[in-house]
Amino acid sequence: MKIAITIGDPAGIGPEIVLKVLPGFKDMPDIKIFGNREVLKRTARDLKLTRNFQAIKNIIRDCGTPVNFRFGAPDRRTGKAALDSLDKAVKSRPDILITAPIVKEVIRSARIGFIGHTEYLARFYRTRDFGMMGILRDKRILLLTTHLPLRDVFKNITAARVREKIELLEWGLKKYFGIRRPRIAVAALNPHAFEFSRGEDERILQGVMSSRHCGVNAAGPFPVDSLFNRDFDGFLAMYHDPAMIYLKTRPGGLNFTLGLPIIRLSPLYGAALDIAGRKIARHIGLTVAIRTGIKLFINSQKNKTGGPDR
């Protein structure tokens, strides 16, 4: 079970939370940190975490070049450092990849076309059937669309795409969570579902019915405002914000990239530039991500279900 950890953007809280968390996992076999050693060493010195650095220095796999950075001020150089960390980690062929927060805007200055971790990893692994899933304890919410302008969401809601994501979600719930007969709830797009629809919720319903005809236990579309408090094994949301508002207003949420040949998780928070360098970043999310990654890996070995396309 090879576990790779990235350090994220040096100007953000990524190196800080890595330094705080990884000493607790340093004795695990095959866990490695991929990032520039000098970035971690300087962060440790500035935040008085030198003992933490000493505890993990033997599991650091040095990559990239040292970068002169300021906390809270990401730039092209810090973006490249984050990208070097990610590139080296995925090329190590891990079973579990845990990613620290990046700043996507500055990475794009180093690599044109970069959208985010999800799309980057899908391209690297040549995976077409994939999705972004938010996890919060027993809540598992898959997104139909990910990083799109809101006006582009509407044209991407089709019955075929809804059915594809429902089936991907069912597969993931079986493989990684051991749920034999998952109950899936699908969110509507419009307030109150159907009441203000311009055809979108009707297309969602077609996708739900199509998946039901194939034996999937799916229901909806339901109004999204209270959906995630209902008793289902998994949920499908139409776009980013409804799911993330629910997940990010509660501690301990994770981002899980479903459909990859590896397990990739990250805490559900960004680089937190406003508090970077102040040694106050909460690091529990990274701890939860590592522990959850191990659980999901063990489950996936027990539940051999093939690829998401079955």
Q: How would you explain this protein's 3D organization?
A:
The protein is an alpha/beta fold and 310 residues long. The chain folds into 2 domains: 1-127 and 252-310, Isopropylmalate Dehydrogenase (3-Layer(aba) Sandwich); 138-251, Isopropylmalate Dehydrogenase, CATH 3.40.718.10. It is 39% helix and 16% strand. The protein has helices spanning 14-21, 37-46, 50-56, 76-91, 104-110, 117-124, 150-153, 159-177, 200-213, 240-248, 284-302, and strands spanning 3-6, 31-35, 60-62, 96-98, 131-136, 139-143, 184-187, 218-222, 234-237, 254-258, 263-267. Strands 3-2-1-4-11-10-5-6-9-7-8 form an 11-stranded mixed β-sheet, with helices on both faces. The model has no long low-confidence stretch (mean pLDDT 94).
What order do the helices and strands come in, and which of them pair?
Elements: E1 3-6, H1 14-21, E2 31-35, H2 37-46, H3 50-56, E3 60-62, H4 76-91, E4 96-98, H5 104-110, H6 117-124, E5 131-136, E6 139-143, H7 150-153, H8 159-177, E7 184-187, H9 200-213, E8 218-222, E9 234-237, H10 240-248, E10 254-258, E11 263-267, H11 284-302
Parallel strand pairs: 1-2, 1-4, 2-3, 4-11, 6-9, 7-8, 7-9
Antiparallel strand pairs: 5-6, 5-10, 10-11
Helix pairs in contact: 2-3, 4-5, 8-9
